[in-house]
Amino acid sequence: NTSVASGTDLDDFIPQLWSEGIIDYMEEQFVLANIVDTSLSALVQKKGDIVNIPLMTEKSAEDTTPAAFSAITDNLTYHSPTDDVKTITVDKLYYSAQIISDIAHVQASPEYFDMYVKGMGYSIGKLVEKLICDDITGLGVSNTVELPLDANNVFDAGDMGNVLKTMAQNNFDPTNGWAMVVSPTLYGSMMQISNFTSADFTASNGGNIKGGRGNVGTLAGMPVYVSNRMKETTTNNHIAGAIFRPDNAKLLYQIAPKVVSQYSVDFLGTKIAAYVACGFDFVRDGEVIVLTQTA
Question: If you average pLDDT over residues 147-172, what whole number do you get?
Answer without folding.
Answer: 89
